Amino acid sequence: MRKRKLKHDDDSFEDQFNDYFHNKIANSGDGNADDADADDGNPNDGNPGSGNADDADDRYAHAYDDDAPTSTRMRRFRDEDDPAPRSRGRMTEEARARLVQEREDVVIADGPPTGYRWTTWDDAGAHGPEPYPDWLVTNLGAVDTEFGVLKTGKEADVFLIERGVPDTGESCLLASKRYRSGDHRLFHRDAGYLEGRRSRKSREGRAVANRTDFGRNLIAQQWAIAEFAALGELWSGGVPVPYPVQHLGTELLMEFIGTPDGAAAPRLAQLRPEPVQLADLWHQLQEALVLLGRRGYTHGDLSAYNLLVNGDELILIDLPQLVDIVANPQGPEFLRRDTKRVSEWFLARGLDPEVADADRLADAVLEEAGVV
């Protein structure tokens, strides 16, 4: 679509626009301004070249009238001999596929010299709590390199990412958690956990309720957003969780828990700790759950598979379904289920039942949360 090019000076845009139309009419036809009104013998034909100044004024008056027909408003951008748009409405599948391919070609052409993408730090999305940790690379010249899958689950897969600036030695390891979309997602009781996360837009709400592809993608984004927000709040409150680096769509980037050479920390379920270490891990778990309770939460799906042991330190992971034990009527029930399930693992490993008391732990958390 061709637009008029008007120079910018002290005159207002509307004055320039008005002058342009009158000059156009005055110089149309055979170039005789006196004959402009009789250009084709019909002073009311309404064409830009008809020489009808009154008609031009009328069209100009409607140029910014939102109630005027679209064709009337569009004339200010298109001459009579300009071709009209050839199609309206949605793109065809062929056109959509061509557009996707063109975008992919641009991305490939603008790709980094190494790795699989430039850093996403400057992309639209949320960043973790400030001040940022010293180990985190925020340089916009950094490149992300993927080293494979760390963990697969029902809701998401976790990949190992190195974010580093080429030729500088500046780098850090990140865990990239990517929630699945489409038909591959199988969220664990997602209907219950999504309660209270309703969209204000009726179209999005229907899509989520009907579990369409669009709705499932929205659910994936909601879970990623929920976990990112939970990690940020808990990390700031001193709870032992990974630092949330960045949230972007259905991808959540967070601190990698493991060794500098990329070996992930084992899950608690994989370990057979000695009695002294077993008691210490239970003590750390108590402190972590009490800190959660202080902020009014319980994990919501706690087990030995959602706890990492990095050296001798216990780390809580997988927190998208964090449950508010104060506002949620079922909160205390979720809490007691968490403490029961994890205490059973410690009891099976030989911890004294007087120590690994699930009910006593749940009561301590509820008391910290102010729920009596």
Automatic annotation (TrEMBL):
It comes from the Bacteria. One of its GO terms (molecular function) is ATP binding. Residues 43-53 have a biased composition (Low complexity). Residues 77-95 have a biased composition (Basic and acidic residues). Residues 22-95 are annotated as: Disordered. Keywords: ATP-binding, Kinase, Magnesium, Metal-binding, Nucleotide-binding, Serine/threonine-protein kinase, Transferase. Residues 32-42 have a biased composition (Acidic residues). Its EC number is 2.7.11.1. InterPro entries: Kinase-like_dom_sf, RIO-type_Ser/Thr_kinase, RIO_dom, RIO_kinase, Tyr_kinase_AS. SMART domains: RIO (SM00090). It is an enzyme of class 2 (transferase). It catalyses: L-seryl-[protein] + ATP = O-phospho-L-seryl-[protein] + ADP + H(+); L-threonyl-[protein] + ATP = O-phospho-L-threonyl-[protein] + ADP + H(+). Pfam families: RIO1. Belongs to the protein kinase superfamily. RIO-type Ser/Thr kinase family. This is non-specific serine/threonine protein kinase. The lineage of its organism: Bacteria, Bacillati, Actinomycetota, Actinomycetes, Propionibacteriales.
